[in-house]
User: What shape does this take?
Amino acid sequence: MLRKLTPYLFVAPLVIFIAVFTYIPILTSLNLSVRQWNFLTPDMPFVGLRNYEELFASAEFWNSLWVTTVFAVLSVPLRLGAALAIANWLVRETLVSRLLRGALFLPSVTSTVSIAVVFSWVFSTDYGMMNALLAWLGLGRPQWLQDPHLALWVLIVVNTWKQIGYDIVIYIAGLQAIPQELYDAAAVDGGRRLHVFRRVTMPLVMPTTYFLLVISVIEAFQVFTIVNVMTKGGPAGATDMLVNLLYEIGFVLFDIGRGSALAVILFVLLVALAILKSRIIGRKVHYEA
Amino acid sequence: MKPENPVVAVLSLVVGLLFLSPVLYSIWMSFQTADAFYAGRVTFTLDNYERAVGQFNFARYLLNSLIVSGLVTVLGITVATLAAFAFARFTFRGGDLLFGATVATLMIPSHISLIPNYLTLAKVGLLDTYAGLILPAISNGFAAFFLRQYIRGIPKALDEAAYMDGASPLTVLWRIIVPLSKPAIASMALYIFITEWNNYIWPLVAVGRQDLYTLQIGLARLYKINPGEGLVDWPLVMAASTITILPVLAGFLFVERHLVRGITMGAGK
Assistant: This one.
């Protein structure tokens, strides 16, 4: 009897924590999203789909969805493309390559708040590194974080800077798994470098690309820290990404119902994206490597 | 390792330094007086650190971050190892389902639990406590998944021999599995520690009392109390920022390889 119980006892702590802090909250969010509540009132009346309707009717929701989508669409291909090119170069086992990998990887374990603060200085108008550089080159003096056309780009740059080392490390692992014979065969056939890259490397790292694509899109839709620290969603909503809007509605305006409705929408969106991607890309993945 | 073309070597190092230059410069800036920084002169002072630690409470924030990240790591790795052992070694009703549910947490965006977890902890009176910061971070699906894969690679004959000698499952885990999984456990402990150290959104909502701020919250607040462009005391902020990144940075230099191995092994599976 005890013997049969053993595995349950071992998994119990993990399962309980996951249930309480991950799975039950999904149901709680669903429940709260059809109620009206602001922490203060004793009861939370059922209001049907009103919170959802209000969101869909509000300009700020569509703005956030747009801004987040633009962020993802611009930053993910930039990150993965650059990471693959750099990984293809750093895959060589030399001392310099090792050092450079370390340097590129460092930001991905560094505090995001610190990075956001440091880059707030880099892109600050009067004393920042970027404008000092531009002044030295005799170019203009943009107000990076105060300009609605530039602020989102700054966040894309900062996010790419932080995450690219992780992508590179994963790509290097993927590249190392490609059998050398394939490159040798391509060399015998007189394949030029770019050709070999396109015909051998690219298809064979497809599983890695797929993995990175999934996690980086999910990540892009959840960017919060750099927004909260660097722009607070401004100027004029230009960087008001979805999780920032969720934080504002839930923890600044204390509109629990509407915040929960937004959380549910974002959740459904991300799950749908994951399924869609596995449908589209899943078929093109080459697993033979 | 192959020798490197010196030109390529020097160029690569320059690229690496340029890439890290914002952070390197911020550390340098933390040793400048504000006057010298704005005037473009070079000085050396520890005044910014003294102010950050004393006047702006960063000693306390550092202590809080160490307590919270330390406890999350110890509890998180314990819970993950226990579960990983059962998932790797026992066949039991519902085992596959529970393992699937554990792995699925990797795909569940964490924002969905933000408001509910806040309400849960408010209900039991744990907002504004260390426990409130720690509890939601303990379960780590990735660590459980990773350790399970690792433990499956350890020959089962070792367990069976121990069971023949009358050992209990807990003894087998503690005497055989844990010693043989040390590299994997170390990688995951590191991963959990760094993730928790850098956690921002949860402490932001779960803690209002200043004496419970972690470094991340303290740094963000310190930066934001500066009222606007041009008035920011950058050298002070950079000293606080350096305090915030230094423990992980120092650790990183020693254990980079472990960390990279852990991350890539997880991705390959």
Remarks:
- The domain at 60-268 of chain B is CATH 1.10.3720.10 (MetI-like fold).
